[in-house]
Amino acid sequence: MGNPTIPLNAGQAAAQAQGTIRTTRPLPFDAPWNWLAAGWRDLWSIPALSLGYGAIFAITAAAIAAGLWMRGWHSLFLALAAGFLLVGPLFGAGLYTASYSLSRAEPVRLRDMVLAGFRARGQLAFFGAILMFAYLIWLQLAFLLLMLFLGGNGLPPPAQFMPVLLFTPSGLGLLVVGAIVGGLIAAMVFVGSVFAVPALMIERIDAISAMRQSIRTVVANPKPMALWAGLIAVMIGAGFFTLFVGLVFAFPLIGHATWHAYADAFGAEPRA
Asked: pTM of this prediction?
């Protein structure tokens, strides 16, 4: 399977050749539910590949959580969950490829999903570095907030952490400020990445232009994109609260649905 490209009209093709940003069409408020429905169909069209992809993601999250636990850094579990929202778009590349192939009635192969990131010719790696940088900033801020609110006497033991977090003034302050800071970082990353990774895989575009295109699309459609961000946060959160089992289903569903969000925004597929 060669490098996929969405058929463009003459004006769009000229814009692509000049490296300019594509325009989006208005999205209705309930569009995210249609994206989820389309993603659900894709998931069960190739259940072994989709759920296998989700299992790898869930096992990775569980392994990181186990490492934090063994080092006594259990207080960073919430930061880990928030961080996965930052880097998730990068790991969904194979799922975008699968949904693209399904939309064209083409066979979906594991090899194409695994090698999906190489189609962006280095731009996806550059964008991934940006996401990882944002993740590292968030982790550093999480450490700083823990020290500011809980002091320098070390983290409370696992049995005491949740009571400290929920029933003490310092714990509640950490929870509120951490949620605000993490939410702001996640929002900025979401705005710049939600349409950027599919664009890098499908279009002849650089990482910065893909981010600008994503930002412009989100700003033009604030209500449906706010709903989509909320749905993603709820599904990832549910995946973590089910001891990562839910991630096996949530991650591929979000990945497939993200492709349909991109395709819907830029006219790559008919709207129901």
From this structure: 0.82
